[in-house]
Please model this.
Amino acid sequence: MGGEQHVPALRKRGRPTADERRARETEILATALGVFLRCGYGASTLDELAAAAQVTKRTLYAYYGDKAGLFAAMVRDLATAVSRDAATDRDTLETLAARIVRRIHSDELVALHQLVIGESARFPELAVILHSSGDARHIARLAEHIRVERGPELEALAEPLFSLLLGERHRRRLLGIDPPPTAAQAAAHADAALALLGLSRRAG
Amino acid sequence: MGGEQHVPALRKRGRPTADERRARETEILATALGVFLRCGYGASTLDELAAAAQVTKRTLYAYYGDKAGLFAAMVRDLATAVSRDAATDRDTLETLAARIVRRIHSDELVALHQLVIGESARFPELAVILHSSGDARHIARLAEHIRVERGPELEALAEPLFSLLLGERHRRRLLGIDPPPTAAQAAAHADAALALLGLSRRAG
DNA sequence: AAGTAATGACACTGTTTCGTATCATTCTAT
DNA sequence: ATAGAATGATACGAAACAGTGTCATTACTT
Model:
């Protein structure tokens, strides 16, 4: 899809050092993400994936078996990365909501969802992984904050709140129609969503 | 993808009658939908599309130029069909909401969204068409009913209402995780969404 | 230092699949 | 009727692409 362009002189030959080996795996997954996001799964070729990672096809096959294996490894890796960075526990419900809005609208996550949705028939388990480590975790964190800051009887509002945080804009995002919101728009949207459900600080 | 199986004896040879010609176009689009939904865009082959429509590749190329043209024609056709069937104007806000929930969760519309989302980079204009004739129209109809039945000051709730009608379940639908809701579940979900926004009949 | 594991370079195979060409056949138009 | 248009049947060309084989090269292991 992207034309070979300046193939940036491959690495030196021969067995890599232990450090190189470790670095290589993460780099392969990172560059594979870029290629898959740009071209989609079907239109991404192994030659292109290999060139992007500055690696030969042989190495890709040695590591991941085949194209589907590489794709799956990449999604899994990203899903764990997504779930890891939920660690900022100084959040209030408001800042958490705003952060979630920004996160779910990030180009990276949107493109990942586009990919996995488009290939959900071929890779159903990846869809489950993505949902568990993404939406499900976000909802759980919202529920936790609602319970602590607003009262346990309102915890059930976490799921509808998340739907509002997505909003119509996120549908347009998935369809590739809208750009991501600015930080200010994200915060305003989060506040509006909280207000609609009576979850604003003063209204609670 | 699906193996040839019992290729159901193609049509008679030669030029078709005017009626056959008209019927053929609609049938091609209908069967193409089925194939694309089953296999996705990339994995659907022209041979399969032709066989499904009981037509030869020649005809497909004569009609649509190429695979992308067929795909685009199919989505456009379906989008107009989607927007047409919004005609039942005896709805109350409640029944409209429930009907929208059922509609957006239908296997057909979900698969269509999966397709278009997955190919939105290749066919951006189809994404726009689908959104305009789907979500946008639903929201407009909700707004209209809210204005008439609940008061114009609440019209702005149409968009968040639609987001709630989608709900987390629709995200799982797009990812292929959940089955469609039953009619009862859809109605209950719609009522709950209306209640959350203070749009229930007694609460308004 | 010898042997083994991992990799780059690169050619190659086999398959898939798009798209076209050819010819026979049947309808439409005049 | 006769010419032309549309189509089925079928084969084929060309390109793309997944995946493999081979050999040279470099690092790791003992």
Residues 10-16, 21, 55-56, 58-59, 62 of chain B lie near DNA strand D (CB under 10 Å from a C1'). The radius of gyration of chain B is 20 Å. Chain B touches chain A through 39 residues (CB under 8 Å). Residues 18-43 of chain B form the longest helix (26 residues).
